[in-house]
Design a protein that fits this description.
seven-stranded mixed beta sheet; 24 strands; about 500 residues; alpha+beta; single chain
Length: about 500
């Protein structure tokens, strides 16, 4: 018997087939179209493109694994969080989705805070309202595209649109719903006060399940499109970060994960809800039943390196860029990178922050510029870890995952900058793997914790270098002065 995990990412949809031992039998990725950015800080994708890629990924991984659809016991879903998918009464997509890194909705955030009250928003949802969340995006459509808003009959998140196409069910689950700005994270239900104060129709919201609960089954049409068997259970799954947390075994106290994808996330387990008073990190429901997690987010992690490659080194691959960066010294001859290409969440909560290099001289070349990018992203991830620890959450070790963690150079830098061991796992798949483990738990293979204890295993651990850690300690002190110094300028140049 096998289980299927599907992750609807920003760059593509990835499907994994996992066996009873938790080993990955095969993986297949189908790319998405590049996100559309009509204006600075805007970002959209077509949900239909996600479904097309998901079909290709599912069919591809079944073929690659040599597994028939009827051998898949259950399906789990993961995906990019916060994206706004709106459907009309015929379940047609009304407009392209405003995705996680879209920052256009600051006026709507301000309006929510004025209407509901900042303190009440936190009381109702356990988080401050942010432009990245789904609710302000929905209100942006209401304020700027009233004809589209009038058509809205259902609001879904990215992975939940793919679930709808698989099962015909409008459903979400607690971890992804936590990032909408509409979920009462403590009670794990939609917040009636938020819905009522903002004059929204509660019927447009999908039902909310726990992550390992079965939410629907594969329809005949989806079976024909993918090669899965009609009637195959599809569990709730999780937002990409909670799914990655499960895939990394972050289901008990003491261990955190650091995921370096398009965005970067430091993620830690909570037995009970805890909040940062300044709202610099998110407190969300975990994919583990009755548990929570806290996470800090760097918006432009792998995105920083991707942006550099696409615009200034289009013929290079990431391995060659990393090799080039290693030829530059620690601290990049005094060059610093601010990874705020799409504004920033942790710790600044600033939608109009801008990225850039500080300290450029005629001495600097491409090697120093790339190394400074990796260093700057790593400093920003240390910001995330620092806020989490300031809340009293104990973090003894960190597990690295995501595309950036494939680089030994980057993992060692994280160890040096975070001054603690950075381990990797035998399985480095992250979100899609976590989705598969949730499918295992949802089909009777044990609780989420029991499944993770059985199949998640560490492979190695990198220890901080004494001299490097000391140098990066000095560099981090400089890094932390740059944002507050430049903050007044961001307002002047924002358009």
């Amino acid at each position: 018997m096998y289980w299927l995990g599907i992750d609807i990412g920003t760059g593509g949809s990835r499907a994994l087939v996992v066996n009873e031992q938790g080993s990955v039998v095969a993986g297949f990725t189908a790319p998405h179209e590049e996100m559309k950015m009509e204006r600075p800080l805007w970002a959209e994708q077509h949900p239909q493109d996600w479904w097309g890629a998901a079909q290709k990924a599912i069919a591809g991984v079944l073929t690659q694994a040599g597994v028939k659809g009827e051998e898949i016991a259950a399906v789990g879903l993961s995906g990019q969080m916060h994206g706004l998918v709106i459907l009309d009464e015929g379940d047609n997509v009304i407009r392209p989705a405003l995705i996680w890194c879209d920052q256009r909705s600051q006026p709507q955030v301000d309006s929510i805070n004025q209407t509901v009250g900042k303190a009440n928003v936190v009381a109702h949802t356990a988080n401050p309202m942010l432009t990245g969340f789904t609710l302000p995006k929905l209100l942006w459509v209401r304020d700027n595209e009233p004809a589209n808003f009038e058509k809205v009959r259902k609001v879904l998140l990215p992975k939940d649109y793919v679930r709808f196409m698989l099962t015909g069910v409008h459903s979400t689950e607690v971890s992804d719903a936590s990032g909408t700005g509409l979920l009462d994270v403590v009670t794990r239900r939609w917040s009636k006060p938020m819905i009522e104060r903002l004059k929204l129709d509660a019927s447009i919201l999908p039902e909310v399940n726990e992550s390992a609960d079965v939410a629907g089954t594969v329809t005949a049409a989806a079976a024909k499109a993918t090669g899965l068997k009609e009637g195959t259970p599809v569990v709730g799954g999780a937002g990409d970060q909670a799914a990655s947390g499960v895939g990394n075994g972050i289901v008990r106290p003491g261990v955190a994960s650091c995921t370096i994808g398009t965005s970067g996330v430091v993620f830690a387990y909570l037995d009970r809800p805890q909040y940062d008073p300044a709202g610099r990190v998110h407190t969300f429901c975990h994919a583990v039943r009755g548990k929570w997690h806290v996470m800090g987010v760097t918006q432009g992690a792998g995105l920083s390196l991707q942006w550099f490659r696409n615009h200034f080194a289009p013929g290079a691959d990431y391995d060659s860029l990393m090799a080039e960066a290693q030829t530059a010294p620690v601290l990049s001859h005094g060059l610093y990178w601010l990874p705020y290409l799409m504004g920033e969440r942790t710790p600044h909560l600033d939608a109009i922050a801008r990225g850039g290099w500080i300290g450029l001289t005629a001495k600097h070349g491409r090697a120093e510029m790339v190394r400074a990018i990796v260093e700057g992203v790593s400093y920003s991830l240390r910001d995330c870890l620092g806020v989490i620890e300031s809340m009293g959450v104990e973090v003894k070790s960190v597990r690295a995952s995501g595309g950036g963690a494939n680089s030994l150079f980057w993992r060692q830098m994280l160890a040096d900058i975070m001054t603690r061991g950075i381990s990797t796992l035998e399985n480095k798949e992250g979100s899609a793997y976590g989705a598969a483990l949730l499918a295992m738990a949802g089909s009777g293979q044990g609780t989420v914790e029991e499944v993770c204890d059985r199949v998640v295993r560490e492979a190695d651990c990198l220890i901080p270098g004494v001299h490097e850690a000391a140098a990066y300690g000095r560099g981090y002190e400089v890094f932390t002065t740059l944002y507050p110094t430049l903050k007044p300028i961001y307002g002047l140049i924002h358009q």
